[in-house]
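Researcher: We're teaching a course module on how sequence relates to structure. For the next exercise, students receive a sequence and then see the predicted structure as tokens, so they can try to spot secondary structure elements on their own. Here is the exercise chain.
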Amino acid sequence: MSSDTHAQVTKPPDTGDVPRNHDLNALADRNLLIVSHSYNHFVKGQVDVLADYFNEVYVLVRYNRFADISEYLPIDYAKPFSKSAKINGEDKPDNLTVISTPLLYLPIDLHRRYLGDQHARKVKKILADLSVDFDVIHTHLTWTAGYVGTVLGLELGIPSVLTVHENHDLFVEQLESSNEKINRTWKNADAIVRVNRQDQNTLRQFNDEVYYIPNGFSQGRLRRVPQAEAKSELGIGDGTKLLFALGHLKKRKGFQHLVDVMPDIVAEEGDVVCAIGGHGGMRSDLEEKIEELGLEDHVRLLGYVSNDDLKYWMSACDAFVLPSYSESFGLVQLEAMACGSPVVSTINGGSEEVVTSEDHGFLIDSPEDHDALADAVVRALRKEWNRDAIEAHAEQFTWERVCVDIAHLYAGLLDL
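Model: And here is the predicted structure for the students to work with:
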């Protein structure tokens, strides 16, 4: 990577704990190995930017071979775990190679518990056939990718970095787990990255080298569109107030509570439409609730939303709403803010990392507090927001900025 390219990198978010005194140009002849559960969304956004620093990058993506049956059968539960859902090869950097790592297991705790060693064996077999010497390993999610990374790091004698992306509830579940290989993973990593601030001290019980580096968003994936233009593109009338929500349709995301409060919101505001994007096992339950509450004219389940359409929904909405129980970082909220839209969310371990002021949105304590949720949404719909200021706040979290810290972390481990 040339020094001119580095000169164009703007100041990253103030993480405060990653030294930025290394020669990042020295990474240009090094090779990076990524072991992850996906090459999509936040992993793809990060890795695609990091590839610009390295000679070669290989991404080994774990997927469940059982889930591939969802390509041929109407099994919504399995779709997010299939190979096609986990790997997005669009606009892949030329020096980046993605290799799928098929595992075979049932989605039950007993099988998951013993999945780490199967994953490690598969990765070792793949690496044995590659004529590449790697200098650093970066893994995403503790179990099983993080476990594999620490095993490989010790065997190959190269540093391993683990990013703990787990949402708050999963993180607590891992802390309380009797699976001692999880604790060993945290102890054996050369550095741990946590995407929120609040769990750093907890992880330092296992490892002194713990850093806060937030997730980021890809500006190339989303582009802010003037709100009136975006509403017109979606066929939303000028006088209609639009709420937008996005995520897997599962209980943790809290969309059932958003539907529950829509009658109160409609009673207060009149012409309101709530559009919810995403697939998941709760779709039929949400459809039943929408019909039961007579909300067919006010709530739409969009299913999968393409990147081309997403920029319109994010830009058009008068508020983005995510009443989630548990998150690791507020990435989808950040993407909405990058399109100038205010956010209504819960204090869930992640959203408060990005909604840091009522200039950007409102936070409530629990998705089950329906009065507070409805009140926050109505207040958001009535407030005059500075959408330019919201967008400016989000821009400090672009991957180009965030990855400066990650590159310095690598360089420090390599003594560059």
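Model: If you want an answer key for the exercise: Residues 185 and 412 are 20 Å apart (CA to CA). The first helix runs from residue 3 to 7.
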